[in-house]
């Protein structure tokens, strides 16, 4: 509908995060369509009425790949861990949260994912190929980061000049 490509997304109980590429300059029209369509479909399905999300969307421009691109992807994919919806101490993986691009895109073979999912770009940003082993490696990296960072901090960028690896 919009021509967007999404390297990462996650749907939470009261908000969502999208990392999207807009080849056409249609962010405002696309977001209007997305939020209106999703809200109408959700309300019909659940017999509800009214807004689902509190405020207007917020957007941050990230150009190119590198530090910001990688940080944003991790932040989005690790969101269920920070919210306490995935607990690695229970043997859970981020793949166990079904409402994300990790479960619906990165864990699937190319023919089983939607064409708007920019999985190849996301894998390549971290040096993984779009193969079964590359996809497993991508998930293992995120699960390891979830454990190493701790649940409250998972995916949040480190603070301090020594942690800044921008080029």
Task: Please provide a written account of the structure.
There is one protein chain. Helices cover 40% and strands 8% of the residues. It is mainly alpha-helical and 167 residues long. It has a two-stranded antiparallel ribbon with strand order 1-2. The chain is globular, with a radius of gyration of 16 Å. The model has no long low-confidence stretch (mean pLDDT 86).
What structural category characterises the helix and strand content? Answer: mainly alpha
What is the string of helix and strand elements?
Answer: EEHHHHHH
User: Could you tell me the strand content as a percent range?
Assistant: 5-15%
Mean pLDDT: 86
- The separation of the N and C termini measures 35 Å
Rounded radius of gyration (Å): 16 Å
Q: Unreliable stretches, pLDDT < 50, 5 or more residues?
A: none
The largest β sheet comes out as: 2 strands, antiparallel
Helix segment count?
6
**What is the overall shape?**
globular
Order of neighbouring strands in the sheet with most strands: 1-2
Assembly form of the protein: single chain
Strand segment count: 2
Share of residues in helices = 25-40%
Fold blueprint:
Elements: E1 5-11, E2 16-21, H1 27-46, H2 67-77, H3 79-82, H4 101-106, H5 119-125, H6 132-149
Antiparallel strand pairs: 1-2
In short:
By secondary structure, this protein is mainly alpha-helical. The chain contains six helices and two strands.
What attributes characterize this protein structure?
single chain, mainly alpha, two-stranded antiparallel sheet, 40% helix
